[in-house]
Amino acid sequence: MGEVNCLYCGKAVPDDVARCPHCGAVSHFQRKGYRHGARLRFLIFFLVLVVMALVLAFWLPRDINVP
């Protein structure tokens, strides 16, 4: 575990915390990522989008009598 300096107060902060313990500013040096759950939200959004596209593909009328 390393330490970096906070961009706002300049004090030493561990690189695995979400916020500076001294000033409360968001840490920009996180190893684990700054958006907890973003991957899960993206996966859910993508799956909903795929399901909606499939529903629309089967629901929209098809013109079978095209010459």
Protein topology:
Blueprint: E1 3-5, E2 12-14, H1 38-59
Antiparallel strand pairs: 1-2
Mean pLDDT: 83
The gross shape turns out to be: rod-shaped
Number of helices: 1
Radius of gyration: 23 Å
The ordered H/E elements are EEH
Uncertain residue segments:
none
Strand order across the biggest sheet? 1-2
Helix content: 25-40%
Structure class: alpha+beta
Structural write-up:
This protein has 67 residues and is an alpha+beta fold. It has one domain. The chain has one helix at 38-59, and strands at 3-5, 12-14. The chain has a two-stranded antiparallel sheet with strand order 1-2. It is rod-shaped. The model has no long low-confidence stretch (mean pLDDT 83).
Give a quick set of tags describing it.
single chain, 67 residues, alpha+beta, two-stranded antiparallel ribbon, 2 strands, rod-shaped
